[in-house]
Amino acid sequence: MVNLLNSLIIFFYKIYAARKYRAFISALDNPHHAQQRLKEQLEKDYYRSLRYKKNNIPFDELPIQNYNELAKNPIEDLITKKILFFEETSGSSGIKKRIPYTKNLLGSFSNMFVIWSYDILKNVNFSSYKFYFSISPQFSENASGLEDDSAYLGESIGLFSKNYFVKLPNAKSIQDPNEFLLKLGLLLASNRNLEIISIWSPTFLLSLMSYLKENEENFLRILKVGEYKGLKFDPIVLDEVTSLNLFPNLKFISTWGSASAQVSFDKLKTLFPHVVIQKKGLLATEAPMTIPLFNIEGSVPLINDVYFEFISKESEILGPEKLIVGETYEVVISQKGGLLRYPMNDLVRVEGFYKKTPLLEFVGRKHQISDMVGEKLHESEVANAIEDTGAYALIPSLEKLKYILLVDNSFNEAKVAEVENRLHNNIHYKNARLLGQLNEIEVVVCNQPNEILNQYYTSILKIKKGDIKESFLLYREAPRLLELLKST
Q1: What number of CA atoms fall less than 13 Å from residue 220's CA on the CB side?
Q2: Which own/partner pairs from 141-149 qualify as long-range (CB within 8 Å, at least 24 positions apart)?
Q3: pLDDT higher than 90, residue 238
Q4: Minimal CA–CA distance to 283: which of 208, 339, 201, 195?
Q5: Residues 157/114, Cβ–Cβ less than 8 Å
Q6: What is the dihedral of CA 416, 417, 419, 422, to 10 degrees?
Q7: Strand intervals (E) in 25-77
Q8: Which of 19, 129, 187, 332 could form a disulfide with 309 if both were Cys (CB 3.0 to 4.6 A apart)?
Q9: Are 380 and 400 in contact (CB under 8 A)?
Q10: CATH of the domain at 238
Q11: In 307-400, which ranges are continuous DSSP H helix?
């Protein structure tokens, strides 16, 4: 009876999702038309807002403004719809932002999920459809915002799919990271029919597996009991912690895998060789931006829900249909929550086209620059220097006037010279090295670099996991990161 009910639910969900999916795929044939239709909707809302009534500036003449500039005026001036809540994000830039969420903006996230999930259902055969949708633990006493990330799906989709979600109760109230990992491990391992995992960063799952392996005896003992500090689950007897033992029916993992996350993404593929692992599209607290599709290398912009403008190296503002393969652009968005002509500071490279719509790959952040002695190293230059070497990150050390290359035990130290030579493509770095202003790169080998990077982003930079865009260049709070490395 239960299987029949599940089959009926999935059947009707596919009918519902197919309509949105076909509309989206059809729009990719004419992105200019889709974007103009969306722009007209956004303009109508804008012309009803207090912002327009106060400044009388036409939509096309609005300046591109970041959060700090917009926040000089009441946020309510931007929005004509009811604000449901504010979601706080520090983001990878470090600026604290409170993003207003309306029903229409949540609808954009829901549309992204429906299109994405339907594409998965078309290409992967599931039985139970059990799904773990990652939460963004804050490990603080004042956790706020959405209770868990499945709330981004909106009320109707959330209710429709709640029977399939594996959810850790009161996850946002857990303040100890180790306690969170233990409870999550117990929950996931005891759900033997879990088939889908969606996480923000591959380091999240790598850290979970590492923690469970390091605490194997205690974890397996508790797993046999079926209860831990109020968390009840089906008792399981396992002889060791392996990916196949813990997740015997896992079929699909969705995770961030672009830019510096590529190294951890590849490690995840090695750890879960029996699982289809897909890179996520570009997603931020402000808006869903791109979506991956099967059998396509890259992600397509969500052109029915977000209005895109792309700034070229020559400062020309272009629509998606006018982008050039191989070129890199800065992303500016207008979304349904009231943020108009809002710079994301994300840089994307055009990998090709699907139909008439560009395939976009995240390559870094616009203002990620390290400058100890005038070398002005940009994140994209560091990414080009180390992304295929197996190194995790480059960290500036003012104390030693050199850069620290973070690697694991598998790193081939012969590649250090290759990294150094590539960095010399930056003339300022080259001159600083030749003049002795900067010393040669120092290699630091770390047994658990993913653990260190998780602590760096969440504990030092105080970034929620869902807001992390991993970087190859770690210059913010670099002294504290280097101290953390010393202590390990």
Answers
A1: 13
A2: 141/175, 143/172, 143/173, 144/88, 145/85, 145/86, 145/87, 145/88, 146/85, 146/87, 147/172, 148/172, 149/466
A3: yes
A4: 201
A5: yes
A6: 180
A7: none
A8: 332
A9: no
A10: 3.40.50
A11: 379-386
331-376 tens-digit pLDDT: 999 999 999 999 998 999 999 999 999 999 988 778 778 888 778 8
Q: What is the pTM of this model?
A: 0.78
Look up tokens 């992303």; give the residue.
331
Here the tokens at position 237 are 């007897």
Whether the Cβ atoms of residue 349 and residue 327 lie closer than 8 Å to each other: yes
- Sheet strands (E) in 124-191: 130-133
Residue 358, SS3 per DSSP: strand
Q: Half-sphere exposure of residue 238, counting CA atoms within 13 Å on the CB side?
A: 27
What is d(CA 83, CA 150) in angstroms, rounded to the nearest whole number? 19
Q: Calculate mean pLDDT across residues 141-146.
A: 46
Quick check: 351 and 298 in contact, CB under 8 A?
A: yes
Residue with tokens 């007209």: 40
- Would you state the structure tokens that stand for residue 233, as one six-digit string? 């689950």
Residue 141 Cα to chain centre, angstroms: 24
Q: Give how many domains the chain has, as a whole number.
A: 2
Asked whether residue 146 is assigned to any structural domain, the reply reads: yes
Give 111's contacts (C-beta < 8 A, 6+ positions apart).
20, 24, 288, 302, 304, 305
User: Token digits for 338?
Assistant: 């009231």
Yes or no: say if 137 and 171 are a contact pair by the CB < 8 Å rule.
Answer: yes
Is residue 330 in some structural domain? no
Do residues 35 and 303 make contact, with C-beta atoms less than 8 angstroms apart?
yes
Same domain, 247 and 115: yes
